[in-house]
Amino acid sequence: xxxxxxxxALATRLEQVARQQNKRVEEVLSEAVDLIEAQAAESLTxxxxxxxxxxxxxxxxxxxxxxxxxxxxxxxxxxEQFWLIDHEGIPRLKSExxxxxxxxxxxxxxIGLVGDGPEDLSESVRETMEARYKSWDAAYSASQTFxxx
Length: 149
Fold this sequence. Notes:
It is a single chain. The protein is mainly alpha-helical and 149 residues long. The chain has helices spanning 8-21, 25-42, 46-64, 68-71, 75-81, 106-116, 121-147; strands spanning 82-85, 91-93. β1 and β2 (91-93) form a beta hairpin. The longest helix is centred in the last third of the chain and has 27 residues, at 121-147.
């Protein structure tokens, strides 16, 4: 349990709300914080919501490893400074971008394969199917001639 100091007027309001709702002051405060967090989450874009979850993972790592400096960064500061979580699960800031070597990303290789192909894959499929059917037609015609039909 922790003690916090608030002004008398706010304490009176909190106690009054708690009595009206037949709850403890701690419950009223907890519900108020939950409501504030929910409203804040609703105002975020999907990308920001995703990044908040990434920041939670980063903070768990920093907490586990005692990195209080990074742990103290706000979401807004991380929006500007956060880079990625590397292949070893270590959260990295943009300031580290040139200091570590990341392994090649296999997805980038796949993107390169697709990027090197034709722009309109449907055209390539049509050409392939046309060539295949022509060879089948030729083989069928030859078999018909051979069979004497």
